[in-house]
Amino acid sequence: MTLAFTKMQGLGNDFVVFDAVNQSLDPTPAWIRHIADRRYGIGCDQVLVAETARHSAADFRYRIWNADGQEVEHCGNGVRCLARFLHDQGLHRADHVTLETDAGLTRVERVDDDQVRVDMGPPVLDPAAIPFKATSRRVGYELTVAGTAYEIAAVSMGNPHAILRVDDIETAPVATLGPRLESHPRFPNRVNAGFLAVLSRDRGDLRVYERGVGETPACGTGACAAAVAGMLNDWFDPTVTLALTGGELVIHWQGEGQPVWMTGPAETVFEGRLVTGAT
Ligand SMILES: N[C@@H](CCC[C@H](N)C(=O)O)C(=O)O
Asked: Can you tell me where the transmembrane regions are (predicted)?
């Protein structure tokens, strides 16, 4: 048996993408870990799958697995890549597509050959819905990690994010504090940890330690969550450019109840076929 796949990336956050509309696929956590393995598999941060939509308003269903084999709710860089995949594979020729995820419906628009713009929906700020253990909703929460208190913001973009403001992302303790935040007991579903440096009212630097992966060159939902945290704190104007290790994303949010818009690139790296022993 062989399975067609496409390797894609958005700002260096990389994906193996499968069409499960025209080929049959039954991903198990062990199979996902094998595909994501950079020595024994293809190698990626996330595996993305396009399926037939269940919701009548959606064109396709979009599923995401982290490299550790866990299925998750959303992926911002991935959604741009999936839209480009559907277009380039001839599965959906229009310049916009509506995708259904476990986090709801997402509308993706092609801006030009390089840039894709996504309506990521409104951020979720109610702690119980993130989920984050807190007695009431706040802009900043004190979180104790290994005896040290940090002020974080907690935001869900369908998936959970903790955002910590730092002076400089070069010296931010991403490798040490990232995994401790990821598995902090106040985030029962674990969390993606963003380290944000505010440069001006319309620019910031961001590094993200992703749940189920580790630090990646970029995280789209992480950039949306960091922008929202920065706007709620009045550090940013409604449009901000965030520079991640892999490149820049432009995020626009007009406030409470409004959708977060994310604009950035999506690129195909290569196409291939998985052969025996891979499933
Ligand atoms: N890289 C992604 C986020 C992927 C999922 C995340 N690791 C999670 O567990 O929620 C992005 O670009 O948003």
From this structure: none
Query: Following DSSP, what letter does each residue of 74-119 receive, concatenated?
Result: --HHHHHHHHHHHHHTTS--SSEEEEEETTEEEEEEE-SSSEEEEE
The CATH number of 3-121+266-274 is which of 3.40.50.1100, 2.60.40.10, 3.10.310.10, 3.10.129.10?
A: 3.10.310.10
Q: In testing the pocket of ligand 1, which one of 16, 17, 62, 72 has its CB within 8 Å of the most ligand atoms?
A: 72
72 C-beta closer than 6 A to ligand 1: yes
What is the C-alpha separation between 162 and 155, in angstroms, rounded? 7
Per-residue pLDDT reduced to its tens digit, 92-150? 999 999 999 988 999 999 999 889 999 999 999 999 999 999 999 999 999 999 999 99
| CB 123 near ligand 1, within 6 Å | no
pTM over 0.95: yes
